[in-house]
Amino acid sequence: MIQEGGLRAPERKALEIEAPKFWDNEDLDRELRRQFDVCHSCRRCFNLCDSFPKLFDLIDDSESLELDSVSSKDFKPVIDACTLCDMCFMVSCPYVPPHEFAIDIPSLFIRYKAQNKKSNLLEEQLTKTDFNGKIGIKFPRVFNWITDKKNKFFRFILNKFISIDLSVRLPKFNTSNLFSYIKQKSKAITYKSSKEKKVIIFSTCYAGYNDSSIGESLIQILEKNKIYYEEGYTECCKMPQLEQGNVKEVKKSAEKTASILVKKIREGFKVVTPIASCALMLKSHWPLLCSENNDVIELSKHTMDIDEFLMGLHAEGQLNLDFKLINKKITLHTACHSRAQNIGAKSFNLLNIISKDKNINIEKCSGHGGTWGVKKDWNKIARKVGLPAARKVFKNEDSIIASTCPLAALHFHDINEDKKLRNYNDKIYHPLELISEAYNKENK
């Protein structure tokens, strides 16, 4: 008897990348057709992203109006349109494991990308966030000038050789070293006796290289709550590589990082990360690739999104509530990678504590998809997918805007500039920045 799976907790199957079956083209094609046929019969995800409409159009335009008359070579555009937001697995699909249909489209697409990966050294350089970041923070003014979209000459070069869309707003590089800042601040902590609550900060490449204010805000919040902390960033979580199907590199990095961080976990530390995508990688995707590595599994169980950690303090009555309330309403965009962690609306709940007004939570995909959304082949679709969310984000004229994904924030600015949804030139904040302000600064 077939049972619906939507009311049972998802049980994601590991990606057995060492098994010959994972790399078998014919087996992959059979599995694509099996899962696509279930999607065709359901169509619940028709408006989730651009992958599913492309799939359904293929079927509807085929001779038999069924999958049997669709050529396998036509599957590539369907898979290329996936941003790996994980929403079809974690939110929408009633047929994920333990349902016997065992649908997992994101994992299936990762397998396809792994088998069909083509080397392009210049485009691959875009995903080398640590290499790029280390150079960028040494010469931030130079690289920020080069990558500014007003710089038509250099942006033409980036468009020509790395396929970055001319109109995309790219992250700036930090003018200070966040990793060193955290290490120095940690050494100066005077409340080390309060070690029953202690965290390792996986700072993330984005906060570390592109927006240090997120990391600085995190430090201020931890200090206000007398949480002992240490810097624990090793290297990028490799989500950009996962998006390209470079599963072996991701697995190698996961095992290396886990072997380092697990030593601190065994000393009683929790690992916290300020960027939702990185938290999702450590908690979910790394265990899928390293299902037999005990260090990776242990790390996944002791990693928390920072908002999850802070709301945990609040639930225990240990969160410092000495806030100066923000007088404006806050519109929060809760990114897909926050929702895919299955932790609830933690960021939204935190912002409700620091605001006098009734805030607004937008749970729609921004469409950015990391390195996917900045490419000239996909940016137009990324904006199309993100437009419904952007309309809601910019709808309330008097609100401050925040997002749990900094890349989504940049993408919303691009959409707003294109569609002129609202006269909004301020930064779209990370929730940590607003919480830090409520602790330390004058209200807006």
Structure description:
By secondary structure, the protein is mostly helical. It has three domains: about 100 residues, no CATH class; about 140 residues; about 110 residues. About 50% of the residues lie in helices and about 5% in strands. The protein is built from 23 helices and seven strands. A four-stranded parallel beta sheet has the order 2-1-3-4, with helices on both faces. A three-stranded parallel beta sheet has the order 6-5-7, sandwiched between helices. α12 packs across α23 and α17 crosses α19. The chain is globular, with a radius of gyration of 22 Å. It starts with about 25 loop residues before the first helix and ends with a helix. The mean pLDDT is about 90.
Could you outline the blueprint of secondary structure elements for this entry?
Layout: H1 25-42, H2 51-60, H3 76-80, H4 87-92, H5 105-115, H6 121-125, H7 129-136, H8 140-147, H9 152-162, H10 178-187, E1 198-201, H11 205-210, H12 212-224, E2 228-231, H13 239-243, H14 247-265, E3 270-273, H15 276-289, H16 294-301, E4 303-305, H17 306-315, E5 330-333, H18 336-339, H19 346-354, E6 360-362, H20 371-374, H21 379-393, E7 400-403, H22 406-419, H23 431-440
Parallel strand pairs: 1-2, 1-3, 3-4, 5-6, 5-7
Helix pairs in contact: 1-5, 10-12, 12-23, 14-16, 15-16, 17-19, 19-23, 21-22
